[in-house]
Amino acid sequence: MPNEPVVTVRGLKVSKFASQETLCFEATVLIDGVVAGVASNQGTGGANFYRPHTLQTRLTEIASTWPDVVVEDFVVGPGKTERFTYRPDADSVVDKAVQDLLAEKDLKRLLKSNVLLLDVDGDIVAMKPSRPPAGGISPSFIPAAIRTHRKEVVAALNALPFEEALRAFRDPAGYIKAQRAARPGSDQPEPSSVTRATGPRG
Prior knowledge:
The structure is a single chain. The protein is of the alpha+beta class. 33% of the residues lie in helices and 27% in strands. It has two domains: 7-102, no CATH class; 114-198, no CATH class. It has helices spanning 53-63, 90-113, 142-148, 162-170, 172-181, 193-198, and strands at residues 7-14, 25-31, 34-41, 49-51, 69-77, 80-86, 115-119, 124-127, 153-156. Strands 1-2-3-4 form a four-stranded antiparallel beta sheet.
């Protein structure tokens, strides 16, 4: 079975002011690194626009291989929620690529001046040194941040390879679940090497 095509975006332009019910954006879409067209959304709750139109067809074919999306707490009325399932489409593929790029940019920005800790509750806590160095956060800042945090730390994102840190940043609960799955019989995720070495104190 061939590998699933990789869809990414570049040249992303976002208008926060115009983003009402959906994200208002425009971006170049690449499939396996090759420019395939442009996707955009007006931010008013409607579907994406695609240029050329054949781009939507290609993305729909990719989405057809994805599993159904399940929303456990879909709001259907005041104080009432239901489990809702829907099929991914072309918009799902592009929206994921856009969110991946935005998360990557946010993570890079935060890592420059913060120690990012993922704790056992699935919270990512940004701890900023009183005098962040101009050259960015060095590993020497991490032990003190872990000692200051009052909860057990699963990982310091600064100490992880960037792709792994991005997975933890985008889906903290999923990252912790994967760590637990790697340790059968344990309810606690494997702590990072930094956590093991210093341990949360106080």
